[in-house]
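so im writing up the methods section and need the Damage-inducible protein DinB record in one place, dumping it here so i stop losing it
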Amino acid sequence: MSTTAILTNLLRHQAWAHDGFLKILAETDAEAHAEVRHTALRILNHCYVVNQIFAGHLTGRPHGYAENNTIETPTPDALRAAHAASDRWLLEYVASMTPEQLSERVPFTFTDGDRGAMTREEMLFHLVTHGSYHRGEVGRLLKQISSPLPWDTFAVFLHQDEPARREHG
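--- predicted struct ---
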């Protein structure tokens, strides 16, 4: 499987997972579970901001963030829409890149001022693993309030997205 193909599947999984978590947070009682809901939104907003920061690194454009989160906490619906747009952009970006472009090392500056350099594919894999890590945190928070948890595994995503995979031949 090519890097483009696996990145596309992983980013599609990420979009599916973001949507599932934010749908559940929108349905979570804002009064009864205010602290957990707020913390979960802060974590998922951090993921969104980091995706935007790295979109800036990928394109060489200023991202406009001085920190890796915003002062204000968006509503679940606003964050769901923002993640959906960001996830679409990432998928379109990968589709527009050649393998050579994906393997190109790009210099950038972290929000703390440190300099760095990663290939485009490393940046994209970073976003996938970073998001997965933080969705795990949110899942733990939701479990504490006995909330239903969305499916968030790559295997479940692939089989829901392509039911024919359940056929063994």
